Amino acid sequence: MGNTTHPSRRKSSAMHIGLIGLGKMGFNMRERLRRNGIDVTGYDRNPDVTDVQSVDDLISAIPAPRIIWVMVPAGAITDAVINELGEKLSQGDLVIDGGNSRFTEDQKHGELLAAKGLRFLDCGVSGGVWGLQNGYGLMAGGDPADIELALPVFDALRPEGERADSFVHVGGVGAGHYAKMVHNGIEYGLMQAYAEGYQLLASKDIINDLPGTFRAWQKGTVVRSWLLDLLVKALEEDPGLQNIDDYVEDSGEGRWTVEEAIANAIPAPAITAALFARFESREDSSPAMKMVSALRHQFGGHATRPAK
Predict the structure, then answer these.
(1) Residue 24 designated active-site
(2) Residue 132 DSSP one-character state
(3) Number of neighbouring beta carbons within 10 Å of residue 275
(4) φ, ψ at 20 (rounded to 5°)
(5) Which string of DSSP letters, residue by residue, matches 253-283?
(6) What is the C-alpha separation between 82 and 299, in angstroms, rounded?
(7) Active site residue 204
């Protein structure tokens, strides 16, 4: 399973799954799954995007044993959906939480569903608003037999090429979201480093072509990355970041990463400093934090605040 390609992924499966939560990312995932041969029935409270009118209708539309992918905000909303599915699904059905739940919640949800004869996987998903076009990086946790059952779904969502380059079965329940949590913590540190470099360059009068400097780093340099590409795109759209406030939200996973570092006595100064910089952005004007805000908008579609 680890290093094989999926040679005939396109429209190769008769699998039919349910997807709960058709926000921006869930909507795109439904479309990518359909393009790649997975039948999807989606449910959302928004009548403009839903395929069915209720969770009951969704369950009725999916053949058993069912796979239901949950793509809703972490916390109370995910809890409510998991509890509802636990009451309504049949033994042997599989629930996949693809949101950004904390790994400790996965373990609770897995135990709750197992007591009812239901199966559960957690899956960290990275790719943001670009996932429909490029595919998603996937980190899954759960039983190997359940992973195998859902593999056509994972293959449809991930990019083309070697499975091991974009999908990993990390471990047991909770491991997928733990890996995604650390992924997001690293993302905090990377964005902060790019943003601080941007502020240094922007403040120096001998730099005559700031956007061109970053553009020239896109090929051949050791700091090239997709985030750098998005930084260049942000500067092309708004060269001085005049339209963006420097207030930067944090999604929660950066905090969880720092909490785990503390709990396990693992030094994580870069990730911690990046999180604290976001807190600071809510008090003072900062060109660096404007760039972090711009990057979050570029890769994830996260809202920015208009400049004051």
Answers:
(1) no
(2) H
(3) 21
(4) -105, 120
(5) HHHHHHHHHHHTT---HHHHHHHHHHHHHTT
(6) 28
(7) no
For residue 227, the surrounding DSSP H or E stretch is helix 226-237
Q: Which one of 84, 108, 162, 180 is the catalytic residue?
A: 180
Please tell me the distance from the alpha carbon of residue 56 to that of residue 42, in angstroms, as a whole number.
12
Whether a cis peptide bond, with omega within 30° of 0, leads into 65 is: yes
Which amino acid, one-letter code, is at 307? A
Of the pLDDT bands very low, low, confident and very high (cuts 50, 70, 90), residue 118 is very high
Token code pair at residue 24: 């921006």
- Which pair of tokens denotes residue 208? 């005559």
Mean per-residue pLDDT for 2-30? Answer: 73
Given the residues 187, 196, 253, 290, the one annotated as active site: 187
Q: Which tokens go with 307?
A: 């400049």
Asked whether 253 and 100 are in contact (CB, 8 A), the reply is: yes
Judged by DSSP in three states, 7 sits in: coil
pLDDT for 284: 64
Contact 119, 143 (CB under 8 A): yes
